[in-house]
Sequence to fold (601 residues):
Amino acid sequence: MCGIVGIVGAEFKIDELVSDLQKLEYRGYDSAGIAYIENGRISITKTLGRIQNLKEKIKPVTSLAGIAHTRWATHGVPNDINAHPHTDCTGKIALVHNGIIENYVELKEFLLERGHKFISDTDTEVIAHLIEENYEGDLYRAVLKTVKQLNGAYAIAVMHSDHPDILVAARKGSPLVLGKAEDKVILASDVTPIIKYTKDVVFLEEGDIAILKEREYKITDSNGNLVVRKVYHINWDEAAAEKSGYKHFMIKEIKEEPEAIENALVGRITQEGPVLNELKEFDLENIEKIKLVACGTSYHAALVFKYFVEKHSDIDIEVDVASEFRYRNVHVDDKTLVIAISQSGETADTLESVRIVKKKGAKVVAISNVVGSTITRESDVTVYMNAGPEIGVAATKTYVNQLVVLYILGMSLLKRRNIWNEELENDYKFLKESPKLFRKLLESLDIDELASYYKNYNHFMYIGRGINYPTALEGALKLKEISYINATAYPAGELKHGPIALLDPTFPVFAIAPQGYLYEKIKSNIEESKARKARIIAVTNEGNEGLSKIVDDVIYVPSAPDDMYPLIMSPIIQIFAYLISDMRGYDPDKPRNLAKSVTVE
Ligand code: F6R
Fold:
């Protein structure tokens, strides 16, 4: 979603600020803009479309302070006028905003009555005018007063031409991070633009307001009391956020999966078996219910956990998408473990679900990739997935690492409840071996020709059964989100209850069909689909040569224990979607209408 970068301090070239903004491109956006001080006045450049267009429009000037923004439209269509920064009537105030102001209609009416003139359709513009209304010579005070009048979510960065050497920022509901370099302070929606300047960062907390100057920043709470926030050290390096010769981040990140898994396993594979030190203090032995809450790809990872742990235990496990979960009357108590999964740690619905269950007395474990993100700070404990920065909008290596961490969590939970058997031992062995197996698979996989054959189909039906059903869901999501193909997923046994009516030679079926315990069942579903003349692509395990006699195309993965197929199948569905997107001429890293970090409801 919207991305914010602000810099204040020693004079800098404004194209540097625009380059920093490019680091947030992956979050998804439709327009971009920048404000800076030139000859004592605020100067603004905005544009619809890519940041590259903005780069071409800006002048080669320097400034002491600047704010830049990528907009993901919520109120008002994407165009130059609705792009941020927005200004007040005097043009002395400029502001960028991430979030949604829910009472903007009432505020706008009030401001119109007071004579303010609006030029955009955005909710954001009311904040600029409200600051103007509240301004009496002190920008911080004006922001402090203004944010009290706002309902909804915001991360804002504000500048004023009468104070060319400061920025004021505030957050509620949407993230903001600060970093202090030698001669400047940098502010951003996430750490990616900051790590070039410093790896020590501070995450603003709910209600915080910050004043940034050349060599210092001060943070207050919403009542104006000075507060000190923890400094987090980020160990991502800048190079990890570059393409390193790959055509797209997405394929680079898929190829990084073996190493990402190794990083997720460090310290968690021990002589005594699977261990999650983070959960040492948790009473996992006596948990009666587990509820997992997540969105999108993270939700699919949660489903795998359910199938896995439910099979080996008698714990009640429920999985829900966060946007539903937060509005249900969910029954939790101190014997319920809630697992909130969010690679970004900022997804608004997942975050709100965490707040709700915590109020009801549940213990919350967050699984996230971003150190210091909001969910990690609001949950009781965080298990980091250690995948490194993921820039491609579609989750790939973070999905794989979510699975790895969830398997470890499930295994250590079972072990602590004295549930351990040969099957789990084999699962565990496979997990340890998985980086090697991923390397081999990724080196040998060659499905370019297959993808090329299927690239022009407009529909796909993904099917799977049992623990392989989430892989079907994830495969369909990957394909639809980056290729804009109508891909849908069903538990294979459901086909005959409706969706099979869609199948014909124009509607291929992508079957997740390893020789696991439901293999014979899915084979029957494949036969049913074939009988409707649908083409079938199947992913199965090496050694299952027989399947090639039934289906049109087969992709092989190394043999695995039943429980572990979701892991080893992941790169297949990801690369298939990636290739098709690229072959159709799209940019898989920046799918239309999507954002990497979904910070609004
Ligand atoms: C799809 C994808 C999204 C995210 C979802 C949740 O490839 O990336 O479906 O999984 O928006 O995001 P997080 O995990 O950051 O909460």
